[in-house]
Amino acid sequence: MELKQFLELFNPLPGNHYIQITTEVDETSVALNKIIQEVDGEFHLAVYSQEDYVLPADLHDAKLQVINKFNTPFRALPRDNDIVIFKDIFSQHTNPEMLLRIAYTTLANTADIIIMEKKGIMDIEVTKELLEKFEFRAPNAIDLLDEYELIMAKKMHMWGNGL
What we know:
The chain is α/β, with parallel strands linked by helices. It has helices at 4-7, 27-37, 96-106, 124-133, and strands spanning 17-22, 42-48, 63-67, 81-87, 107-118, 136-142, 148-155. Helix content is 22%, strand content 32%.
């Protein structure tokens, strides 16, 4: 996977917090952890797995939560994250609307949300409409990775929900 262009989407600032919600930790997880650690930030992982999960050694400083049911929400503090990345979970979760509500609450103002799914799984237009419905603005489909479709949108301060 070519990560250079993917990582250009991110501009971590000192103390930033990123959270990736996924079914499988991979090189995107490792790369995100590395760039956030370089600015003394925190990388949180919420892994949906029905088996016991052990973090790979190169993610030893990530904060991990394991969720073993696809109808269970991930946990995140209000306004605690600067970016939320859903990878390979959005289409599998039984309640994607709940995931968006939690993401909206945990994001700081003007923060970003990214939804990544393997190519051919996600209906891009429907997902963009859903993001707009939950007050995420300017959703864009971005073609950066060979295996993934990616949509990025922004939570804008004092728009819609105003959180």
